[in-house]
Amino acid sequence: MAILTRRNLLKASAVAGAYGAGMMLAPRLTALAAAEPMPLEARIIEASLDGRGKTRNVMTYTGAAAGNDPMPPVLRTRRGENFAARFVNHLDEPTTVHWHGLRIENAMDGVPFTTQPYVYPGDSFDYAFTPPDAGTFWYHPHCNTLTQIGRGLAGMLIVEDPADPVFDAEIALNLRDWRLGGDSQFIEQFKARDAAKSGTFGTVRTANWQPSPTYDAPSGGLVRVRILVADVTRIYNLKLTGAEALIIAIDGQPVPVTMPLDMAVVSPGQRIDLVIRMPDSEGAIVALEDIRPSTPKTVASLRSVGTSLKRELGDTKPLAANPQPEPDLSSAIPVPLVLSATAEEAARESICGTLGYSFWAINKVAYPGDGPDPLAPLAEMKLGRTYLLNLENVTPHAHPIHLHGMNFHVISSSTRKVLPLVSDTYLILPDEKVQLAVVADNPGDWVFHCHIIEHQKTGMTGYMRVA
Ligand code: C2O
Ligand code: CU
Q1: Distance of alpha carbon 21 from alpha carbon 19, whole angstroms
Q2: Are residues 378 and 294 in the same domain?
Q3: Which of 27, 205, 413, 434 has CA atoms 20 to 30 A from the CA of 65?
């Protein structure tokens, strides 16, 4: 279901403002005008995730394109076009929807208390925005986040650019784990002693909610694979066997120059877009593997079908760059941001849930959770100015740190060579110092947090104020 063939892709592109889950893009969707909100609902279902039994209390999003697939739909829209969703909460707890990586209006950012009220059970909220960037993005809740993402609420959002090169096929992969016991039911979502380290890992690993699925792809064709790490904890080291591939985008943004995929580190919240050149011989298998030493695993596979299209990987056309504001480094204002462990007791009861612990801090402050008296911002930024986030990780763990509402340019690192990427998430390694430049061009309060959700929810959160 995640496969979009070239023919379907062309058909889909003919539908103004079309969205849907790959091939499931049904003709009836053409009836919806671009500005008419699409339905998007959070609800509790039963689903089979581990290839054995049915898991109860799975949380998913359903919408116009739902069909039989229990996974949240892959939403599609276009750069510069209006996107609108009427979100209805059918859970039995409050939630919100955050559009990760999209530089949109603050009021649409989906962070309770900071940008919008909680969406209580039975209530709805209208989201509407115009994505300024094409690429691979995602949507997820920002309330009781460990449980809600942990139980399923994480979907892909693809923003197309009409000028994007056309590939022979396209596949979207939503990678994540589940914390299930032997009876296929959810077990405790985290262990405190792991939350104080690299996080609590899942017991069942899936791509598109299936253990190691295999997808057909045209022999000898060029296949665009959009990969999202939606897991709350796991950092992937992705490698391909059986074919060559190029990295064409990271975190939704086209890379400055395409590069061969050797091994790619992709952490929670991040995306990577590959172009894979399928083998010529029918039936050949290409395996996407996670080669983290402790946990090797075939994540998903592609199987060559049909007579070879005989494409060349070198024929891959680059993606059009998304226009970004240029940072002015000569006048950039430094913002020190130290990520550390903490012993401070700051966790407070809140509507969006607390894990009851404070293990982490930014500039020595552990974020206590959503509430009526928010902490002071980490920085007050003047609209239009450039800021240099001087991040320092003084913990022995890696943190995929994520900024809402604006992208940053990766400038330099104390420990490694960095690519000049534009991104919304940076994986900062132990003892690393990194400089990220941000043009403060989007007014509002923007959350800044680690995307290992146990870290986010036990203190490693703050926000920037742009005015
Ligand atoms: Cu993926 Cu605060 O976000
Ligand atoms: Cu972290």
Answers
A1: 7
A2: no
A3: 205
Amino acid at 102: L
Question: Ligand 1 centre from 110 Cα, in Å?
Answer: 9
Residues in the chain: 467
At residue 51's C-alpha, the angle toward residues 153 and 218, to 5°, is 85
Q: Domain for residue 273, yes or no?
A: yes
Q: Which residues approach ligand 1 with their CB closer than 6 A? A: 98, 100, 140, 142, 269, 402, 404, 447, 449, 451
Q: Where does the pLDDT of residue 369 fall: very low under 50, low under 70, confident under 90, or very high at 90 and above? A: confident
Question: Is the pTM for the entire model greater than 0.90?
Answer: yes
Residue 361 and residue 339 share a domain: yes
Flag whether 65 is in a domain.
Answer: yes
ipTM greater than cut 0.95: yes
Determine, yes or no, domain membership for 183: yes
Longest Cα–Cα distance in the chain = 63
CA 23–ligand 1 middle distance (angstroms): 28
Atom of ligand 1 nearest to the CA of 111: 2
Q: Which residues contact 137 (CB under 8 A, 6 or more apart)?
A: 99, 100, 101, 102, 131, 156, 157, 158, 159, 252, 271
Degrees to nearest 5, angle at CA 429 with 190 and 198: 15
